[in-house]
């Protein structure tokens, strides 16, 4: 109780609330604009967070994150193109509702669902994270290695549908993460070390510039191709009945609960992000609403259910994704990788220690996140009238803006060490080109991102585990936790094959 | 080609925007538009990191420019040191140097102290060999005995091979004929987690790293010549008291603040003043006392002389441990 009061003290100030509000607005706008993802938003605000008190900075970043995830639904509903992949499953019913002249209801329901999903995941985070943190002492190098491997396998197998391509991209990401110098001997690890060892490349590819390049720059390049395409017309908004009736919501309780649960669970798994959770939630909602006598409107027909299911799931991912971040220091996706970076910069080390000795900060982060969710909801409602205007921003203005923000964001991360900052801008541009090429070639980008994020963790923990076991590789088969993870990995890799081969029947039509 | 009016305007605008970002001249150091990076060459949460952050917090009140801590761990502090050496010598990048820098440099992991100038010598944190509280060995001698039963099996962890705990662990291991499996972790924070998790039997910790988990640990020996000033560790014997008076190992980690060689004097002077004021603050003095950190404050030439003396004293130890690279 004392900790809770201390936590409140950390977060309850006008300054903090203003930062949360600003982060929320920024997140919604960035989320709504095509080409600017949640990760970009969080990465752009990261340098700002360095100069705020820890709890304020983290709450502000979480506000951007939650806002961007929720904001993506706006263009999904109004235009049928999601602001970022988080809202991809909202299109089916959202767009239909807009065409039926119920865009206001769709937007309002989406905002409400985001709030419900977000709060649900926050409650799970608050109740489970302290318990999990106590269990983290069970997670040694062997288990952390396994967790990173599981995350990579998961993402490689579900993004893009082709396991081999996904794995290739994950491996490429790990390769990029290994560039730099050896973590034990400091020996240069790069092509032509005699030339590059004395350049900023000795520290490898830094995460933030790489993420900005892969998400921001590459999207701007993709957008360039459709510069001349006419922008779709934004339908007129009628602002009556923003929310479904209370009775309706009550009938929908299972849809909302299960979607939020799915989102939270998927968020907790490293690798699987909101873009996967939304489809799972939508599928589940379809099953629920197509049950006779459910009293629900079937998804696919422009139903509130079809909007609220994915929208509660994607915001539930945000709270779920914070679980591994705060307990194990393992980010579940790119956006939380940046949040984790912000925590580390402030000297906050995730894990048991944090929950044992710094509970006020943990509470402050939780409370900050609750404020962020409320702000997100409020600004989405207040902003309803403005959204059509945001969506009318022409690509010819948006593309240079994205590129400019990408470079400024990259430069700002490393202060004014000019060589380093210039190198980082180079990294962002190079990764932008690589990302563009990958998208054009039809390979999935997300496994590459995760490989880059988890690569160093894989390496460090692998080497430490083998060193502790005095060179014995069998150590990886002696941990029950890791064996469980390996079984899961095998299942993920071979289940689709077995299904295809007809060995397992009837799983899916 | 003559630049058009638009081009000229653009150029002027660019220069205006770029001007505040130019490396500052010494006379107006520090430029408050710029951020001063404090590079901690270890992972966050370890002894060095925890001892430095409160100082930086105080320094914020004595410098107009903003300060930002960056933890760049790896290769026993060599990667963070190299990061500093890749930046301009303008006083806007500081390195938390010390015994880890000496160790990493002597092992040939980085150019290290050859390229550094000391701004301030700060303090010492004593090393303690500790195991989990429920382990059967109650003295350092018993730990060594257990290790010798199956040589090379029992893990003796350190906070990174380049650092002083790394050298201490190698020196101990040599003295007992490779009885231990010496394992480097990425900073004291990670070492602590894996000793707490039972994956590494024993560790060489900074005294302050044990304070937050007193009940979980069983300290076996303190590596300094004198016993701890802290009530919690008053009973922990020194190596000599434990019967190992011929064991020559680094007794603790020393921390200093350094900049790249060639940094303008004006910047170093201003930094030394700010660090001095922060160091003398009640908050930091109290912090050091609570953590049992031993103060050895000096600045500039005096700090450099202190550091050079340490380097000279370290060389035989590092050579003895077989880690010295010319």
Write structural notes for this entry.
- The complex is a heterodimer of chains A (509) and B (326).
- Chain A has 509 residues and is an all-alpha fold.
- Chain A has one domain (2-235, 252-500).
- Chain A has 23 helices and 2 strands.
- A two-stranded antiparallel sheet of chain A has the order 1-2.
- In chain A, a hairpin with a 6-residue loop joins strand 1 (180-181) and strand 2 (188-189).
- In chain A, helix 11 (207-225) runs antiparallel to helix 20 and helix 20 (395-413) crosses helix 21 (418-440).
- Chain A is globular.
- The N and C termini of chain A lie far apart (52 Å).
- The model of chain A has no long low-confidence stretch (mean pLDDT 86).
- Chain B folds into 2 domains: 35-124 and 253-320, 3-Layer(aba) Sandwich (D-Maltodextrin-Binding Protein, domain 2), CATH 3.40.190.150; 126-233, Periplasmic binding protein-like II (D-Maltodextrin-Binding Protein, domain 2, 3-Layer(aba) Sandwich), CATH 3.40.190.10.
- In chain B, strands 1, 2, 3, 4, 5, 6, 7, 8, 9 and 10 form a 10-stranded mixed β-sheet that branches.
- Chain B is globular and about 65 Å long.
- Chain B contains 11 helices and 10 strands.
- Mean pLDDT of chain B is 87; it is low at 9-26.
- Chain B is an alpha/beta fold and 326 residues long.
- In chain B, strand 5 (154-158), helix 6 (164-175) and strand 6 (180-184) form a beta-alpha-beta unit.
- The A-B interface holds A 50-51, 136-141, 181-186, 198-200, 202-203, 344-345, 347-349, 351-353, 356-357, 415-420, 460, 464, 467-468, 470 and B 21, 23, 34-35, 37, 43-45, 49-50, 53, 66, 68-72, 74-76, 78-79, 82-83, 86-88, 92-93, 104, 109-110, 152-153, 155, 161, 181, 183-186, 189, 192-194, 196-197, 199-200, 212.
What is the fold's blueprint, element by element?
The complex is a heterodimer of chains A (509) and B (326).
Chain A (H helix, E strand, L loop, with lengths): L1 H10 L2 H19 L5 H12 L4 H18 L1 H6 L12 H9 L3 H33 L5 H18 L4 H16 L1 E2 L6 E2 L3 H4 L10 H19 L20 H6 L1 H16 L5 H16 L14 H25 L5 H12 L6 H6 L1 H25 L3 H5 L3 H19 L4 H23 L5 H23 L11 H21 L9
Antiparallel strand pairs in A: 1-2
Helix pairs in contact in A: 1-18, 2-3, 2-4, 2-18, 3-4, 3-11, 3-16, 3-20, 4-15, 4-16, 4-18, 6-7, 6-15, 7-13, 7-15, 7-18, 8-9, 8-22, 8-23, 9-22, 11-20, 11-21, 13-14, 13-15, 14-15, 15-16, 20-21
Chain B lengths: L4 H14 L16 E6 L6 H13 L6 E6 L6 H8 L7 E6 H8 L9 E17 L7 H10 L4 E5 L5 H12 L4 E5 L3 H9 L5 E5 H5 L5 E6 L29 E9 L4 H16 L1 H10 L2 E6 H21 L6
Parallel strand pairs in B: 1-2, 1-3, 5-6, 5-7
Antiparallel strand pairs in B: 3-9, 4-7, 4-8, 4-9, 4-10
Helix pairs in contact in B: 2-9, 2-10, 4-6, 4-11
